[in-house]
């Protein structure tokens, strides 16, 4: 199974409802594009890194299994959403709920 080569990680307030607008980059308080490192994280899933974010992402479910933002775990009150990045350009698939503030690295 081939894994996506990059994702956009969106950090959003936990209370934000999952709507097209809220799940988009405009609803995020921080976003980062992470690329596959070729390594497997401690969680056992492929590791992605970029722009101060390191994430272990399950390619089958698009769940964020571990996350570090600037070297620290995700703050309470924040949740993670991801969007798969296509190789062509910045086009992406629909957002998926990845994990919530319980994601750890």
List the secondary-structure elements in sequence, H or E.
EHEEEEEE
Distance between the first and last residues' Cα: 24 Å
- Cα Rg: 12 Å
The biggest beta sheet reads: 7 strands, antiparallel
Number of strands: 7
Helical coverage, percent range: under 10%
Overview of the molecule:
4% of the residues lie in helices and 46% in strands. It has one helix at residues 20-23; strands at 6-13, 30-40, 46-50, 53-58, 63-69, 78-84, 96-99. It has a 7-stranded antiparallel sheet with strand order 5-4-3-2-1-6-7, with no helix packed on it. It is globular and about 35 Å long. The two termini are 24 Å apart.
Keywords for this entry:
105 residues; mainly beta; 7-stranded antiparallel sheet; 46% strand
List the helices and strands and how they pair.
Layout: E1 6-13, H1 20-23, E2 30-40, E3 46-50, E4 53-58, E5 63-69, E6 78-84, E7 96-99
Antiparallel strand pairs: 1-2, 1-6, 2-3, 3-4, 4-5, 6-7
